[in-house]
Amino acid sequence: MSVKLLLEKAHVEGIRSYDVYRREGGYRAVEKALKTMSPEAIVEEVKKSGLRGRGGAGFPTGMKWSFIAKPEGVPRHLVCNADESEPGTFKDRYLMEFLPHLLIEGLIISSFALGSNATYIYIRGEYAWIPDILEHAIREAKANGWLGKNILGTGFDLEIYVQRGAGAYICGEETALIESLEGKRGNPRIKPPFPAVKGVWDRPTVVNNVESLAAVVPIINIGAEEYAKIGVGRSTGTKLISACGNINKPGVYEIDMTISVEEFIYSDEYCGGIKNGKRLKACIPGGSSVPILPANLLLKTAKGETRYMNYESLSDGGFATGSMMGSGGFIVLDEDQCVVKNTYTLARFYRHESCGQCSPCREGTGWMEKILKKIDSGKGAMSDIDLLWDIQRKIEGNTICPLGDAAAWPVAAAIRHFRDEFEWHVKNPEECLVRNYGLAGYAEPRPIPA
Amino acid sequence: MLTDAGLNKVKEIVARYPEGKQKSALIPVLHLAQDELGWLSADTMDYVAALLQLEPVEVYEVATFYSMFHLKPVGRYLFEVCQTGPCMVSGADDIIGYIQQRLGINVGETTPDGLFTLKTVECLGACGYAPMMQLGKHYREHLTRERVDEIIEECRQKAGLLN
Ligand SMILES: Cc1cc2nc3c(=O)[nH]c(=O)nc-3n(C[C@H](O)[C@H](O)[C@H](O)COP(=O)(O)O)c2cc1C
Ligand code: SF4
Ligand code: FES
Fold first, then answer.
1. Chain B residues within 8 A of A120 when measuring between CB atoms
2. Topology adopted by domain B77-158
3. Which of A185, A243, A310, B130 is the right S-S partner for B65, CB 3.0 to 4.6 Å?
């Protein structure tokens, strides 16, 4: 059974406009929250809902909110993280493009709960057309009394501003985002102090993902208890999954987290199976940073149990045999895809996006890219595979921000599960060359190494 | 250097931040300048610095950090084709190769008539609609060789009308 809390109205004609959104029951949650609940009660409600951050780390949202410092006379800020740059992830874009008022509604309630009178949406610069959509929605909301001064006569004032980034994945990391919002390079800060104490302009700040903040709307509407009943274990509510790669129906899906990975991939309601009738080879289930899993470990855990689309099940087995829910960027590879080449493109991505502050990350991502390129183009040696393993180990845990880990994990998992494929490249240098560097050559099928 | 409309916009942007925090307006204002002037020359950056009462080096630091800012002129139509994993497994290499062939340039180059620049970029958040590229403010998705031909033709026609 599918439950839709966020995308329920996504296909209603004209839902982007205020009038239609309101007619469909929009802004009821703001009314309820601002008129009948105190900020503390909202924080409690979000805590009780079990909502976990949808940006990647899965940290409980209500708990994060309860950490915000409240020094006398110092303004606080809520910042919405719409930087969405993790390869495979495009769900926040979908929400903002098609349901802008849902996000605005979530932002009003969350700002009220946190005491933010100026809330910023930091959106990746490449989504250049979306600020127009959001700003239009903000104007509509303001014209109808949901923003501005003394909202609903409660004495609460709020302005929402949209700020564009300019092409830097690292600005999705919350302290880099704050630096960028202050008009600086996106260099992550050393924590502590945490943003909840010293964030933007040294004021207490909460940074939350678009989807997390949108989820506050159904939590208020149906109540935390009902929300927590959806899903399973500590994976409550619904999750947006952006599915891509070699599947029949790429797109953004809302799931309740009780469905199996197999159902998600093969059911017509979701991915619709592997494209061109091919076989499933591997999948990166939670955005490019999380470990890649071969088909067998994706569909079943190492213990032979069905794997489900939720936080606990996807990480079952740890990194040895499991992966992570991450941001919900679900990347499927069919039998013809080359894991070495895929890993090389990801290593190149992380090298490109490293801010360069810490040497293990700056140097390590560069080395990993170089070595992977070498192996991918048939110039690698067996010892390069071990060297690669060594480098990724030296990055993990030794950096200021988690981008270092994010760069190391995909490489580690690729070697862990597909070492034979790396060796195949070393042993068959000519074949990789043809496959990788012909104009369309990469698409030619090649045997999966035994 | 900026138009009056642009300068008004700058005021509006600066007003979004607390008193004295106008540095926060830097990235939006650099976008604005680049939209109006096509790229960010040293003169433009100095001008932006003066506008926001910053040191020029504060502006250079930022302009060089973010990949969307062009520190050199680019062609009138900038093809930014995504080459990261999800696009790669959906055929981005073929599209990049085909554009190179059609325009007779390599990645990073501009056609001699100044019309087209080809760049490769990393994931743009359109992985489900791959292969894709950014062209100006918008994305072109589900690219095929035929779509690429149409886009090139569309740009040539637009350029013809503008000239
Ligand atoms: C390198 C890096 C990139 C990140 N990118 C994003 C992003 O694009 N969007 C996002 O919401 N969170 C991103 N995060 C996570 C944020 O730091 C932060 O945890 C998140 O915005 C918190 O919101 P949530 O609790 O609602 O998920 C990133 C983290 C790292 C280390
Ligand atoms: S881990 Fe990488 S991205 Fe993060 S602060 Fe260090 S160098 Fe910068
Ligand atoms: S990988 Fe190309 S848009 Fe994400």
1. 16
2. Glutaredoxin (3.40.30)
3. A185
In percent, the amount of chain A with pLDDT more than 70 equals 96
The β-bridge relationship of strands A118-123 and A156-164 is: parallel
- What are chain A's domains? 18-229 (3.40.50.11540), 235-334 (3.10.20.600), 339-443 (1.20.1440.230)
Whether residue B16 lies within 8 A of chain A, CB to CB, comes out as yes
Calculate the alpha carbon distances from A229 to A109, A255, A260, A327 in Å: 22, 14, 18, 22
Question: Cβ distance A189 to B30 under 8 Å?
Answer: no
Question: Would you tell me which CATH number, out of the four given (3.40.190.10, 1.10.10.1590, 1.10.8.60, 1.10.150.530), belongs to the domain B4-65?
Answer: 1.10.10.1590
Residues in chain A with pLDDT < 50? 437-450
Closest CA to A110 of A45, A178, A188: A45
Identify whether the C-beta of residue A448 lies closer than 8 Å to the C-beta of residue A403: no
Give the tens place of pLDDT for each residue, A81-109. Answer: 999 999 999 999 999 999 999 999 999 99
Q: Is the CB of A186 under 6 A from ligand 1?
A: no
Atom of ligand 1 nearest to the CA of A213: 26
